[in-house]
Amino acid sequence: MKYVDEFRDGRRTAGLIGAIEELSQTIGSATEGPIRIMEVCGGHTHSIFRYGIEGLLPRQIELIHGPGCPVCVLPMGRIDDCIAIAEQPRVIFTTFGDAMRVPGSRMSLLQAKADGADIRMVYSPTDALNLARRHPDREVVFFGLGFETTMPSTALTVLQAEAESVTNFSVFCNHITIVPTIKAILDSPDMQIDGFLGPGHVSMVIGTAPYEFIGHHYRKPLVVAGFEPLDILQSIWMVLKQIKEGRSEIENQYARVVVDGGNAAALQAVTKVYEIRPFFEWRGMGSIDHSGVKMRDAYARFDAERKFAIPNLSIPDPKACQCGEVLKGVIKPHQCKVFGTACTPETPIGALMVSSEGACAAYFQYGGIRRAGSA
Amino acid sequence: MNEMHVRRRRKLGKVQVPAVTLAHGAGGRAMKDLIDDVFITAFDASGGPLEDQARFSLNDLARHGDRLAFTTDAFVVDPLFFPGGDIGTLAVCGTINDLAVGGALPLYLSCAVIVEEGIAVETLRRVARSMADTARSAGVSIVTGDTKVVNRGACDKLFITTSGVGVIRPHIDLGVNRARPSDVVLVNGFLGDHGAAILEARGELALRSPIASDCAPLHDLVSVLLAAAPGMRCLRDATRGGVATVLNEIAEGSRVGLEVEEAGVPVREEVRGFCEILGLDPLYLANEGKLVAVVPAEQADAALAALRAHPFGEHAAIIARVTDSEHGRVVMRTILGGRRIVDMLVGDQLPRIC
Q: Across the interface, do B337 and A121 touch by the CB < 8 Å criterion?
């Protein structure tokens, strides 16, 4: 495929791996233990596993799979809320596909659908708005989730609904924001990360400036990375180069998509519709200050949280589940007590086992090779 | 029971209303008219008296081989019509292929339909015609059937079940437990066309270039392949769950490892693009005209050449090799040279959020 195959070229890969090996050797002799690089974004995690990138890297580089899979960090209480909305008469509840299997405290959306709730998979919030237009006698609710990547499309859909005076459309807003979460990881006492691959799609919206504090305050390098294998390898090389040269800067490998100032139109729509919540609960990481957004009062009539009675209960994560430690890079997925035994993609306990972007599901499905060799 | 198989010259009934009602399933004149109009006409089965079963001469069957193969499959697909086929072609090809990959020559099919009241009679006629055309061109007869009409909502428009009888040629013994280290795994062309075509035909994604299903009867291709590679270990058609699922069944069944070479896996450009957009993996998409063949290494070239010389095997490729390590596992060597496991999926592939 044009413009894609170029970024999956085997020969260029070999060249980059060579350069990464060389760099990590010179760093390796100066530091103790592995060099830990966290890819924040679930899209990166997916690519890393899909192409077997971990196995190509020198052993002293350890990739930590961060919290950037929005489906994985949804707390159980919010899934319960979704089901409570979906079970109300007249509601058509619409969602992205990979949220269907996330376990709530009673059941997942997939199970609720089987029990008779009208839950439909859509590819974008505009599909949901179309459903609302076609079914004026029904209440269509869109399950808005995701980081800044998907936030603008939900915001623009709400603005569209407002412009057309559609009254039977609303959004159950679970959008979250990445920067406070990176900060929470950096503040965590068991934090053991030497550098970051920054999320490419999020940065396309917010630009690179919001990450500056990571370099200034925490003295860690961050490279905004694309999603093709060569993007990821080049970004790893750039992080290593910074470590070697003692720099901690915000660099942009994904300049073909990400401009430093972000996307002004998208940001404007987001700011118009949403405001920051004082705090939001994350699965595995607990409550993080300013890490979620809600709809502004001016858009209350499109806000499913206000339109419907929802339980809004905080459900603690299952005790056996160690998703939080995996998300922070304290343990590897297979070191979790329930990995592959009680917690599998078929019966996930932790959300990291649910989405194909989740580190545990990726380990379960794609992993095992290097692990078997190195454990 | 309302079988339609036997020979009798009689005047065929005709349905005069546009849509099917519960009366068409009630066993009376209306039902007879529907069966005559839709199925007997299409399947050309008006030659003799209607009995409750099709009857075969054992001696005739024995001329084709020494064992019977018998299979059944139910077909539910939304939408009923899609680029490259419809539920009718699917119902005939699916059962033909299930027989063919056992090394059998497919001979007779049954056809049971469950119809939701309200469906247009013309839709049924169209489906029956494409079943008849597909069967005729494959040299297979539809010899018995049944029709039920159910209340609106009790089924989704039309469900079809076909069963098939075939005869296995002598000296052929194919099995998922027969792969051996150093064997070679082939497919007969582009993977994932059917799965992508169905997803696209649901109209939820406004893509510009339609992808056509690969729905096709494979028994002729199988004959050619068995002649070229008589040492064939195993054949499977890669329907639901895709090639990845079949490879896992082979690895488990034969207690061997399989190493897939990603660069060798044939996927059509449009399907690759489709999968990139949705975050799907073509290895798990359904096919309706693709088989996976395991052959001894020394017969691989002959098998590949035979496949490529056939209209349904033009884009055939070697995709994997059988290994003696990591028994029960399918491992992919990625285009980058990395390695990953290709596991079975738990359920459907779900499109990713971003």
A: no
